[in-house]
C-alpha cells in the first residue's frame, strides 16, 4: 500500500530555530490523523510542509508518490502535490473579491481547465453538501465565520483532493460556530477522506481520529489510538499537556 | 500710487477661447504620460518586491532617481539634454509625455508595491494550496484586491501629474499655462488670465476627483 504522506528524518529550521526535529511520520489512505500540542510546538509547520507551504531543510518527504526535495526543490512535484492536497486555514483565507461560488470555481477552472458550467455545478453541489447552498452568490464578508470556513472546505474539495490538511480550522471561530464546521469534517472523515488535522478540539480528536500525534518542541513524542493517548498517555510531557487541556 | 484694481471680467472672458486651445495638450500630456506611467509603475513596482536582488535593485534605483529629483529638471534634461546624446531634437510634446510617464511611473511603482504588500499572505497561501501557480495566484487573487486599494492613491497621483504639466510651459509646449503666458504677453491682463487658468485646472482636477469617487464606491461595494 502506498502511503499518502511519508516523512523520514525530516528537519525544518526557522533561521536558527530548529522547529521540526527528525520527523518520521506516515499517513495511510483514508486515515484521519489529529496532531495536538502546545502552541509553538511545530504542529502547524508540520502539516504546512505536506503541501510545500513550508520548505524543509533535510530528510525526506513524499506526498502521494511525489518526492518533494528539501529547500523548495522539485517544483514539478510541488505543483502536482498542491493539486492533490487541499488545505483549510485558521483564518479561512477566502478570496474577498469573489462570490462564494466563484471562490470554489476558481481553482478547477484555472488549474484543471474545467469548463465553467461543470465548475458551477460542482460548486453548487459542494455548497449544498456543506449546508450553505443558499449563500452561493454572496461575498464571503457577508457570511458568518462558521459559514466562511465551510465555504473554505468546499473550495478545497472542489479540486478533489486525495488528502485534506486542516490547520486549526475552528480556532478563529466563535464557540457557537465550531460545531457546524466539525460536523462537516466528521462527515468528510466518514466518507473516507484522508485527513491531517491540527486542532485543540480534543473531543473531536477522540471521536474522529484514527491516530493522535502529540508533538512537543518539534518532536513527535507520542502517537497512537485516541483512547490510548488520551486515557493512558505514556510520555510524561503528553500527560502534562493533556492534564492542562482536559482539566477545564 | 493708485492701488485701486478692477477685475476686468471682459478680459477674463475674452481669454477663454485662446486658453482652451491649451487644454487638449494638458490632457494629452497628463493622460498619455499617466497611461505609460501606470505600465511602468506596475512593471517596476512588481520588480521592486521581487525576491531576486538583481531584479529588485534596478527597480529601486529607477524609483529613487525619479522620485528624488524635481520633475522640472527631468523635463529639461529630456528636452535639452537628451538630444545631445541621441543626435536629434525631441519635440516638446514627446518630452512632456516622457517626463510625466517616468515621474509618475516612479510614484505609481510605490503605490503598486504598497497595494500588493497590503494583501494578507494568507491569500497567496490559499491560492497556492489550491494548485494555482505563482502567477495565477498573483493575477487572479492578489492583483484584483490590490488594485482596488490602489485606486485612491492612483487618483491622487493623476491629480499631481496634471498639475505638474504646468511646468512644461518652460519647454514651449502649448499647454494651458503656456497659452496663458502667450495671451498675457499681448494683453497685459495677468491677474484675470491666471485666474482663469487656475479655474480651468480646477475644473479638470475636480471632474477627475468626482469620477474617481464614483469608481471607488462601485469598486469597493462588493468587498
From TrEMBL, chain A:
GO terms for molecular function: ABC-type amino acid transporter activity; ATP binding; ATP hydrolysis activity. SMART domains: AAA. It holds the Pfam family ABC_tran. Signal peptide: none annotated. Keywords: Amino-acid transport, ATP-binding, Cell inner membrane, Cell membrane, Membrane, Nucleotide-binding, Transport. It is a peripheral membrane protein. It comes from the Bacteria. One of its GO terms (cellular component) is plasma membrane. It is found in: Cell inner membrane. Residues 5-242 form the ABC transporter domain. Belongs to the ABC transporter superfamily. This is Amino acid ABC transporter ATP-binding protein. It comes from Marinobacter santoriniensis NKSG1. The lineage of its organism: Bacteria, Pseudomonadati, Pseudomonadota, Gammaproteobacteria, Pseudomonadales.
UniProtKB/TrEMBL annotation, chain B:
One of its GO terms (cellular component) is ATP-binding cassette (ABC) transporter complex. Its main location: membrane. Belongs to the binding-protein-dependent transport system permease family. HisMQ subfamily. Part of the binding-protein-dependent transport system for glutamine; probably responsible for the translocation of the substrate across the membrane. GO terms for biological process: amino acid transport. This is Putative glutamine transport system permease protein GlnP. GO terms for molecular function: transmembrane transporter activity. The keyword Kinase does not apply. PROSITE patterns: ABC_TM1. InterPro entries: AA_ABC_transptr_permease_3TM (IPR010065), ArtM/GltK/GlnP/TcyL/YhdX-like (IPR043429), MetI-like (IPR000515), MetI-like_sf (IPR035906).
Amino acid at each position: 500500500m502506498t502511503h499518502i504522506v511519508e516523512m523520514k528524518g525530516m528537519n525544518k529550521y526557522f533561521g536558527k530555530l530548529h522547529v521540526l526535529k527528525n520527523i518520521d511520520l506516515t499517513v495511510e489512505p483514508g486515515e484521519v490523523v489529529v496532531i495536538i500540542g502546545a502552541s509553538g510546538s511545530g504542529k502547524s509547520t508540520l502539516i504546512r510542509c505536506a503541501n510545500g507551504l513550508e520548505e524543509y531543510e533535510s530528510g525526506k518527504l513524499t506526498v502521494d508518490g511525489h518526492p518533494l526535495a528539501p529547500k523548495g526543490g522539485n517544483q514539478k512535484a510541488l505543483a502536482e502535490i498542491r493539486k492533490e492536497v487541499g488545505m483549510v486555514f485558521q483564518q479561512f483565507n477566502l478570496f474577498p473579491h469573489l462570490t462564494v461560488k466563484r471562490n470554489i470555481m476558481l481553482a478547477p477552472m484555472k488549474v484543471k481547465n474545467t469548463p465553467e458550467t461543470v465548475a458551477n455545478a460542482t460548486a453548487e453541489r459542494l455548497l449544498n453538501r456543506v449546508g450553505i447552498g443558499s449563500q452561493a452568490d454572496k461575498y464571503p464578508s457577508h457570511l458568518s465565520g462558521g459559514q466562511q470556513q465551510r465555504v473554505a472546505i468546499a473550495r478545497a474539495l472542489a479540486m478533489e483532493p486525495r488528502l485534506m490538511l486542516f490547520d486549526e480550522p475552528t480556532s478563529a471561530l466563535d464557540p457557537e460556530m465550531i460545531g457546524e464546521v466539525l460536523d462537516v469534517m466528521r462527515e468528510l472523515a466518514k466518507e473516507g477522506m484522508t485527513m491531517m488535522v491540527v486542532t485543540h478540539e480534543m473531543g473531536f480528536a477522540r471521536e474522529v481520529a484514527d491516530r493522535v500525534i502529540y508533538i512537543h518542541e518539534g518532536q513527535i513524542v507520542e502517537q497512537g489510538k485516541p483512547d490510548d493517548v488520551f486515557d493512558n498517555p505514556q510520555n510524561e510531557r503528553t500527560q502534562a499537556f493533556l492534564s492542562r487541556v482536559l482539566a477545564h | 500710487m493708485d492701488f485701486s484694481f478692477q477685475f476686468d471680467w471682459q478680459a477674463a472672458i475674452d481669454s477663454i477661447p485662446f486658453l482652451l486651445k491649451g487644454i487638449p495638450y494638458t490632457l494629452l500630456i497628463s493622460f498619455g504620460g499617466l497611461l505609460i506611467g501606470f505600465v511602468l509603475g506596475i512593471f517596476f513596482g512588481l520588480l521592486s518586491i521581487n525576491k531576486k536582488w538583481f531584479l529588485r535593485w534596478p527597480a529601486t534605483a529607477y524609483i529613487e532617481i525619479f522620485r528624488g529629483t524635481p520633475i522640472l529638471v527631468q523635463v529639461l534634461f529630456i528636452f535639452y539634454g537628451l538630444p545631445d546624446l541621441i543626435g536629434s531634437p525631441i519635440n516638446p510634446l514627446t518630452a512632456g509625455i516622457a517626463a510625466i510617464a517616468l515621474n509618475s511611473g516612479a510614484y505609481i511603482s510605490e503605490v503598486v508595491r504598497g497595494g500588493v504588500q497590503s494583501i494578507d499572505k494568507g491569500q497567496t497561501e490559499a491560492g497556492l494550496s489550491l494548485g494555482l501557480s505563482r502567477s495565477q495566484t498573483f493575477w487572479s487573487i492578489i492583483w484584483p484586491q490590490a488594485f482596488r486599494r490602489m485606486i485612491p492613491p492612483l487618483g491622487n497621483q493623476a491629480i499631481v501629474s496634471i498639475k505638474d504639466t504646468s511646468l512644461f510651459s518652460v519647454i514651449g509646449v502649448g499647454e494651458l499655462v503656456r497659452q496663458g503666458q502667450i495671451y498675457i504677453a499681448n494683453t497685459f491682463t495677468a491677474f484675470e488670465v491666471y485666474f482663469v487658468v487656475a479655474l480651468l485646472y480646477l475644473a479638470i482636477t475636480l471632474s477627475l476627483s468626482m469620477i474617481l469617487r464614483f469608481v471607488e464606491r462601485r469598486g469597493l461595494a462588493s468587498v
